[in-house]
Design a protein that fits this description.
The structure is a homodimer. By secondary structure, chain A is α+β, with helices and mostly antiparallel strands. Chain A has helices spanning 14-28, 31-34, 67-80, 101-118, 173-183, 199-207, 222-234, 249-258, 280-288, and strands at 40-55, 61-62, 65-66, 85-96, 121-130, 138-148, 164-167, 212-216, 237-241, 272-275, 297-303, 310-313, 319-321. Chain A is built from nine helices and 13 strands. In chain A, the strands form three sheets. A seven-stranded mixed β-sheet of chain A has the order 8-10-7-11-9-12-13. In chain A, helix 1 packs parallel to helix 4 (101-118), helix 3 runs parallel beside helix 4 (101-118) and helix 6 packs across helix 9 (280-288). Chains A and B meet through helix 1, strand 1, helix 3, strand 4 and strand 5 of A and helix 1, strand 1, helix 3, strand 4 and strand 5 of B.
Chain lengths: 334, 334
């Protein structure tokens, strides 16, 4: 076996088969994948959720995770945010010729660990190799399928005045962790990506019976992006309080230094939930009992005023509009 | 609006939203996509098929198609090859900074046309932009979901001695068309990619009630790759006759000139079916009545001898082993 990926590994010929059968199949062994047909076939009934994301994070390995873990958690989370129980994933690789085989193996091991932890199965995949210089190392696409339990109806368009806005923990770690790795920066206190699968946290929240209206993970665009999406989709206003938003000191310091707003920085293991006022405390209490929601906090509410806009009361007592980020602060963060 | 794609178009911020809402949504308008939640949610019951493929074809535009058409047809075909009726697609883009917006619009229009023709809906998507030099123009991943009708049970492992091997038409056009476009070669007679969605051809074949055992589209690795996969998965031998395999004269000439074996060259609108001996003529007759199967032909049979191997009787009367292609003849053909 070569120690670098060759073009022929993506040819559909003998080397492709060897790469897949020696390196990928033993990791993911399950009856659906093992058939190696063009599509995986399985029985499933009900309201299904379907989503896709491509991951182009640079560098491939960063504090707290790598592109493989990210590709599983990200798609699991997109399913979970519709209230679905994630079940099945596809994994499609675009690899640059010359990519070290050992790195690919390490990434695929991460895919496997993250899938096992989230209790999802990888059942279909694809491997393409492009010439050196035609891609940057490794890109991964994952698509996912889940089942939405009866009675669950969550959408970014369902926020109503009076609802409470809850975040599941501190914001900004993922973006800062990837960027500091890429740029070789060091901050006092190590900042690790929060990359994690949130499906079990969501299951806990749903189990409370609390009326959950909107649910989303604030990835690219950060908390500001997600809240603006909710406001726009629901035609409602959102009011948040800066003081209530949990941010790690190290992230705060890094953002100050670099001129970033933590509200705009990507997260990969956090969710924002908009919940009926009367159920907010119940849902919050349950979230805090989950390992991934310990620092959950109510950070604001949905209001009838300024529909489509997010307004923040700052630590200084002033009000400011929280805009959707316009440019690209941190390219290739996921 | 800029006339080139910027990094900020992939930021998850304002420019991302503008790109998607102005350029993509109007093309694909459907209630599932229009909700713009993290996952599309729909009711579906039964035996489902799920598949994924990433497309990295170079160049993006080639005679007979482009990366957008290819990304739809390829995934529709992977679903159809499991006997499924394709229903839903995801479309995930990785775009290189600086890619012309007009080209992206043209590709997405192709995605829309191909989806409409195949009667599938694009219901979820993703857009990432990477720095100039970190990808080559545009890569597209499509994943797809379909429903397998009751009673249909097709797998590459189901070939039995006595079964007939049928190809749905001439081989090798796609690979030669892409390569000649890329290398600026001209052959007498224009060679166009055969890129097409085969789901309706498969539906016609299933409607005959003929016992279809294996079905696959011979893309990367060509006809030789697919037949070797069937032989390996089924633990049977396959015997084919060179004379019976339809090849366009221009493709033949191009392959001779370039030293390629048409059996190794990729197709994107052809299928290979292994069918019970007694049903072969019935299925073949039906295939020939479909626009995409006019030149269908029986090219061989499954045998008990040489299990796992494909053997061809050549035009000269000799027998030779048809190997799985080993290296990479034509990188980035799909």
């Amino acid at each position: 076996m070569e120690d670098k990926i060759l073009l022929a590994h993506g040819s559909g010929g003998k080397l492709s088969h060897d790469l897949i059968s020696k390196n990928f199949l033993p990791l993911f062994r399950n009856p659906l994948l093992d058939k190696l047909d063009d599509a995986a076939v399985f029985e499933l009934n009900g309201r299904l959720a379907f989503t896709t994301d491509s991951y182009v994070v640079n560098p491939v390995f960063f504090p707290g995770g790598d592109i493989g873990k990210l590709a599983v958690c990200g798609t699991v989370n997109d399913l979970a945010m519709s209230g679905a129980t994630p079940l099945y994933l596809s994994v499609a690789l675009v690899i640059e010729e010359g990519f070290p085989l050992a790195d690919l193996q390490r990434v695929m091991k991460s895919v496997q660990s993250a899938a096992e932890e989230a209790e999802v199965q990888v059942i279909t995949g694809d491997t393409k190799v492009v010439n050196r210089g035609s891609a940057d190392g490794l890109f991964i696409n994952t698509a996912g399928i889940g089942v939405v339990p009866r009675g669950v109806d969550i959408s970014g368009a369902s926020a109503r005045p009076g609802d409470r806005v809850v975040i599941s923990g501190t914001i900004g770690e993922h973006g800062i962790a990837v960027m500091s790795q890429r740029e070789g920066l060091r901050f006092s206190g190590s900042i690790e990506s929060d990359c994690a699968s949130l499906n079990k946290l969501v299951a806990d929240m749903l189990a409370t019976g609390g009326r959950i209206h909107c649910l989303r993970d604030p990835t690219r665009g950060g908390l500001a992006g997600t809240l603006n999406e909710f406001a726009a989709q629901s035609g409602a206003g959102i009011k948040i309080t800066e003081e209530a938003i949990p941010v790690q000191d190290a992230v705060h310091a890094a953002c100050e230094l670099l001129g970033f707003d933590p509200l705009h920085v990507a997260n990969e293991g956090k969710l924002v939930v908009i919940v009926d006022r009367d159920d907010a405390e119940k849902v919050l209490a349950k979230m805090r009992r989950n390992r991934l929601g310990k620092q959950s906090a109510i950070i604001g509410e949905v209001v009838a005023e300024h529909p489509g806009r997010v307004v923040m009361e700052t630590c200084l007592g002033a009000s400011r509009i929280v805009d959707m980020p316009v440019g690209e602060l941190l390219p290739r963060i996921c």
